[in-house]
Amino acid sequence: MNMLNLNAIPSPSRAATDLSYEADLKVALDPVLDDLLDRTEAAGWDRRKAAYTIMFLAARKLTTKPSPEIAPSVS
C-alpha cells in the first residue's frame, strides 16, 4: 500500500531555473493542498472560500517576504 505522508514535502530535484521546476512543485504540493481543503471543509468551512483564502494568504506572504530571485541587488 502506498501511504502518502502529508507532513513531508519532497525536496526539489531540479534547480529553480529549470523549466520543470514549477511542474514538480505542483505535484509536491497538490496532495497537501487537497488534504488542507478536505480538513477545512470537514470542519464546516466552504471549500471554495477556503481555496480563495489560501490564495490570498499566499499572495500576502509574497508581498511581505520577497523571493531571492527578484530581491534587489546590493551595490
- Specify the number of helices: 2
Kindly state the mean pLDDT as a whole number?
Answer: 86
How much is the radius of gyration in Å?
16 Å
Taking pLDDT < 50 over at least 5 consecutive residues as the criterion, the unreliable ranges are none
> What general outline do the C-alpha atoms trace?
globular
Number of strands: 0
Order of helices and strands: HH
Head-to-tail CA distance between termini: 54 Å
- Quaternary organisation of the protein chains: single chain
Structural class: mainly alpha
Binned strand content = under 5%
| Major sheet characteristics | none
Q: Please bin the fraction of helical residues.
A: 40-55%
What's the short story on this structure?
The chain is mostly helical and 75 residues long. The chain is built from two helices and no strands.
Task: Describe this protein with a few key phrases.
mainly alpha; 53% helix
Describe how the helices and strands are arranged:
Elements: H1 21-42, H2 47-64
Can you walk through the features of this model?
This protein has 75 residues and is mostly helical. The chain has a domain of 33 residues. It is 53% helix and 0% strand. It contains two helices and no strands. It is globular, with a radius of gyration of 16 Å. The relative contact order is 0.09.
